[in-house]
Amino acid sequence: MSDNQLQTDERRQETRLETYLESVLEQKEHTIYTTVINLSEQGVGFLSARPFKKGEVVNINLSFHKQNIEPITLKVRVQSCREVDLEYYIGGVIISKTDEFERFYAAIPQVY
Fold it and tell me: Does residue 7 belong to any structural domain of this protein?
């Protein structure tokens, strides 16, 4: 996947951090593996094998087996979805986050 294919107009007010975090997405009857590729305090960008519609709400679960970080669940409202190669890039707004996420996000520059 080329960098050009993932470039978007920057609409976030916060700094977007590049990541590569394995995650699991849950929504009603769907549970699929995803990859979080960028993160800000208010939003998340991830790659998914299936598309989602704008406005849909999903849970993104992050767990860190090799680090002493509690699993994190983010409730995300999908803002955009576009096909990139053989998968979908989805951008969303975090509508519910935990204290664990706040601590994790603050530590990202030190971890990655």
Answer: no
pLDDT in tens, 59-75: 999 877 666 677 899 99
Q: Cα-flanking dihedrals φ and ψ of residue 46, to 5°?
A: -145, 160
Look at the pTM and tell me if it is higher than 0.90: no
For the domain that residue 35 is a member of, what is the CATH number? 2.40.10.220
In a domain, 6, yes or no: no
CA distance 11 to 6: 14
Closest CA to 76 of 92, 91, 62: 92
In which band, very low, low, confident or very high, does the pLDDT at 98 lie, cut at 50, 70 and 90? confident
